[in-house]
C-alpha cells in the first residue's frame, strides 16, 4: 500500500513537471486524522519556490484515486486515508493469503545461524536462555521472509573445560576404572560435574601447575589419546542428551548439532593456511594473527617491565594456537566457518548469537577469515550480541544464595508460576499448557527489549494476563478460538465500515511492516510491540461488538471472518517469536 501511495504522489509530481526523487511515506502519528503521511513537499518547496502547503495542495489536486483520500495539511504534509472499500479488499486478500499479507524479500539469502552455544560438562543455567530464544526467533523471521536457513546448536565441546573437568574427576578418584583398571565403570552425571567443574575452574586461577596439567589434558583430548578421549565422549553424550531436552522445552530447534569438535580434523590445516600466507607469527610460543587495522592497536608506554602491555583502541592479535599446540576457541571458530563454507557452498551470511562480552572475539575471528580468504568478500559475517538478564534488584539473576540459577529450575519455576496463574483464573492446568504459557511469558518478556539491552527477569510481570505480556496475547487467541467454536457458522467476506475494524487493519499493516524492521535490526522488540497493539485493538472490538448475536447475517459472517484474520495474524506473529498459541486458556 505504501508503494501504491508513493506511485500516486510521484505521478502527481510528474504531471506538475517536478523531479521529486524518492517519496517518503510513513504510518501516521495521528491515526485519528489519517492512516499514512508524507512530508515530501518540505524538501521540494525550495526547488520549486513555493510554500510547502501550497505545493502539497497542488500535488493533492493532481491525484485521482478510488482507493485513497489525499488531503494537504499545514504546514505542508500530505495526509492519506484508506477508503473502507480498499480496506475490505485488503482484509480479504490477507485472509486468503498463506502469509497473511507478508511480502517475502525478492533476494533470497542462504544463511547459517549459530545459536545455543551450550558447553558440555556444565549444566545449562539462566545465562543460556537468551541465545536459543533470540536465535530461534530470528531464524523463524528469516524463513517467513523467504530465506533459506540452517541452524546449528554449535556446542562448546573442545575447550579447556573438558581438560579441567577430567583432571578434577581423576584427582577425586572417580576415574580409577579408566586410568588404573580398578573398580567398576563410573556413571558420570551432572550432579557429579556440578561439583567437579566449579572446583577445577576455581583451582586453575590459583594453581599454575594444575592449570598447566589441565591444558595438557585438553591437548590429549584433542589428539584423541586414551583414556582421555573415551571419557570425553561419555561426558559429551550425557551432556548433549540433557541439552537437547531442555532446548526442546524452550522451543529451540536445530538442523545440525555440530560442536567445536566437528572441525577438529581440519584445525591444523586451517593454521597452515595462515602460516603459508605469512599471516601468523610466533608470540611467547603461541601462534597469533595480527588483525588490527590502521589506527588500532596502538601500544601505550609501560610504566614498568612487569606491567602488562596496554593499548589505545585495542584490537589485540588473535591467538590461533596455544603454546602447547592445543586449539583455542578462535581456532575452532575459524575452522567452523571454513567447514560451513565447504558444506553449505559459501552461504550469503553466517550469524552468531552470543552475549555482548564475546564481541571482541568474533571481530577477531571474522577479520582472520577475511584476511585468509576463508570467508569470501561477498559473505556477511555477523555477531548479534545481546544484553544480560537481571533480577528485580538490577543485578545478574541468581539464587538467594548467590549461585547461578539452573535452566531446568527456571523452566520448572515457569511451569509452577503459570499453573498458579491458571488456577487463580479457574482453570485446571496440564503441564503442557503451563509450559506453553510460562515459556511464552518468558520469551515475550525477553524479546520485548532491544536485543543489545539488559532486561529484568520479572516472572510476576511476565505472567500477567493483562498488559503487555505473552499470556495476554495468547489469551486473545484463545478467546477468538472460543467464539469460532461456539459459532460453527461459515465465515463470509470481510466488510470494513467502522473505526474499530479500521484500527485493527492498520495494526495488521503495522505488524507486517515490523517484520522488515526486525530483519534489519536483528531484534524482535518492534514485533512484540505490534502484536500487543493488535491484540489490544481486538479486545476493544470484542467489547464494542456482539459478534455471535449480531442479527444481520452478512455482518455477523463478516465479523467471524474478521476475527479469523486477527487470530491467524496473531498466531503467525507468536510463531515467529517462538511462542505457542494454546487452543484454550
The total of helices stands at 20
- Given as residue ranges, the uncertain stretches (5+ residues, pLDDT < 50) are none
Give a count of the beta strands, DSSP E runs of length 2 or more. 15
Instruction: Trace the largest sheet across and list its strands.
Output: 1-2-4-3
Q: How many separate domains make up the residues?
A: 4
Q: What is the CATH homology-level superfamily of the largest domain?
A: HUPs
Q: State the shape.
A: globular
- What is the end-to-end distance? 36 Å
Rg over alpha carbons = 29 Å
- The CATH class of the largest domain is Alpha Beta
Beta-strand residue fraction: 5-15%
Short description:
The protein has 585 residues and is of the alpha/beta class. Helix content is 50%, strand content 10%.
Structure description:
The protein is an alpha/beta fold and 585 residues long. The protein has 4 domains: 2-82, Arginyl tRNA synthetase N-terminal domain (Gyrase A, domain 2, 2-Layer Sandwich); 110-155 and 257-390, HUPs (Rossmann fold, 3-Layer(aba) Sandwich); 160-249, no CATH class; 422-576, Isoleucyl-tRNA Synthetase, Domain 1, CATH 1.10.730. It has 20 helices and 15 strands. It has helices at residues 2-15, 40-48, 52-61, 84-95, 130-144, 160-171, 176-179, 190-204, 208-222, 228-249, 267-276, 329-343, 359-372, 407-424, 431-447, 459-462, 470-487, 499-521, 525-544, 553-576; strands spanning 26-27, 36-38, 68-73, 77-82, 110-114, 148-152, 280-283, 286-289, 298-299, 311-312, 318-321, 349-355, 380-386, 389-390, 455-456. Strands 1-2-4-3 form a 4-stranded antiparallel beta sheet. α6 crosses α8 (190-204), α12 (329-343) crosses α13 and α18 (499-521) runs parallel beside α20. The longest helix has 24 residues, at 553-576. It is globular. The two termini are 36 Å apart.
Amino acid at each position: 500500500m505504501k508503494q501504491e501511495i508513493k506511485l500516486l504522489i510521484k505521478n502527481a509530481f510528474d504531471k506538475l513537471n517536478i523531479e521529486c526523487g524518492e517519496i517518503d511515506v510513513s504510518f501516521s502519528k495521528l491515526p485519528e486524522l489519517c492512516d499514512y503521511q508524507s512530508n515530501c513537499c518540505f524538501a521540494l518547496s525550495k526547488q520549486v519556490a513555493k510554500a510547502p502547503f501550497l505545493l502539497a495542495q497542488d500535488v493533492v489536486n493532481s491525484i485521482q484515486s478510488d482507493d485513497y483520500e489525499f488531503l494537504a495539511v499545514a504546514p505542508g504534509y500530505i495526509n492519506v486515508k484508506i477508503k473502507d472499500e480498499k480496506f475490505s479488499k485488503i482484509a480479504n486478500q490477507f485472509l486468503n493469503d498463506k502469509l497473511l499479507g507478508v511480502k517475502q524479500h525478492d533476494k533470497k539469502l542462504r544463511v547459517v545461524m549459530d545459536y545455543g552455544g551450550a558447553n558440555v560438562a556444565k549444566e545449562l543455567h539462566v545465562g543460556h536462555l537468551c541465545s536459543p530464544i533470540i536465535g530461534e526467533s530470528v531464524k523463524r523471521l528469516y524463513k517467513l521472509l523467504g530465506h533459506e536457513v540452517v541452524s546449528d546448536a554449535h556446542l562448546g565441546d573442545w575447550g579447556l573445560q573438558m581438560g579441567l573437568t577430567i583432571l578434577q574427576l581423576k584427582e577425586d578418584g572417580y576415574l580409577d576404572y579408566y586410568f588404573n583398571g580398578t573398580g567398576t565403570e563410573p556413571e558420570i552425571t551432572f550432579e557429579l560435574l556440578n561439583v567437579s567443574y566449579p572446583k577445577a575452574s576455581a583451582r586453575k586461577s590459583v594453581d599454575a601447575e594444575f592449570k598447566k596439567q589441565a591444558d595438557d589434558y585438553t591437548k590429549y583430548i584433542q589428539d584423541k589419546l586414551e583414556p582421555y578421549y573415551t571419557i570425553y565422549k561419555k561426558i559429551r553424550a550425557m551432556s548433549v542428551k540433557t541439552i537437547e531436552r531442555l532446548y526442546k522445552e524452550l522451543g529451540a530447534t536445530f538442523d545440525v548439532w555440530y560442536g567445536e569438535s566437528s572441525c577438529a580434523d581440519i584445525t591444523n590445516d586451517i593454521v597452515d593456511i595462515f602460516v603459508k600466507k605469512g599471516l601468523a607469527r610466533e608470540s611467547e610460543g603461541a601462534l597469533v594473527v595480527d588483525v588490527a587495522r590502521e589506527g588500532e592497536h596502538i601500544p601505550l608506554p609501560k610504566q614498568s617491565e612487569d606491567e602488562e602491555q596496554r593499548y589505545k583502541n585495542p584490537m589485540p592479535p588473535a591467538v590461533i594456537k596455544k603454546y602447547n599446540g592445543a586449539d583455542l576457541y578462535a581456532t575452532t571458530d575459524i575452522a567452523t566457518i571454513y567447514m560451513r563454507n565447504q558444506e553449505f557452498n559459501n552461504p550469503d551470511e553466517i550469524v552468531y548469537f552470543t552475549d555482548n562480552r564475546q564481541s571482541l572475539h568474533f571481530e577477531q575471528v571474522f577479520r582472520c577469515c577475511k584476511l585468509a580468504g576463508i570467508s569470501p568478500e561477498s559473505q556477511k559475517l555477523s555477531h548479534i550480541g545481546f544484553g544480560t538478564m537481571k533480577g528485580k534488584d538490577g543485578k545478574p539473576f541468581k539464587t538467594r544464595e548467590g549461585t547461578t540459577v539452573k535452566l531446568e529450575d527456571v523452566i520448572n519455576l515457569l511451569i509452577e508460576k503459570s499453573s498458579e496463574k491458571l488456577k487463580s483464573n479457574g482453570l485446571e492446568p496440564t503441564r503442557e499448557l503451563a509450559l506453553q504459557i510460562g515459556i511464552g511469558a518468558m520469551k515475550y518478556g525477553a524479546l520485548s527489549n532491544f536485543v543489545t539491552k539488559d532486561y529484568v527477569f520479572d516472572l510476576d510481570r511476565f505472567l500477567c494476563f493483562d498488559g503487555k505480556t505473552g499470556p495476554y496475547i495468547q489469551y486473545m487467541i484463545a478467546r477468538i478460538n472460543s467464539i469460532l467454536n461456539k459459532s460453527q457458522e461459515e465465515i463470509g467476506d470481510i466488510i470494513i465500515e467502522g473505526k474499530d475494524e479500521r484500527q485493527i487493519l492498520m495494526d495488521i499493516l503495522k505488524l507486517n511492516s515490523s517484520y522488515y524492521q526486525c530483519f534489519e535490526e536483528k531484534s524482535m522488540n518492534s514485533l512484540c510491540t505490534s502484536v500487543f497493539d493488535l491484540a489490544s485493538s481486538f479486545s476493544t472490538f470484542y467489547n464494542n461488538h456482539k459478534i455471535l448475536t449480531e442479527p444481520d447475517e452478512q455482518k455477523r459472517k463478516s465479523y467471524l471472518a474478521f476475527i479469523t484474520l486477527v487470530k491467524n495474524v496473531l498466531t503467525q506473529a507468536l510463531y515467529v517469536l517462538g511462542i505457542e498459541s494454546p487452543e484454550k486458556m
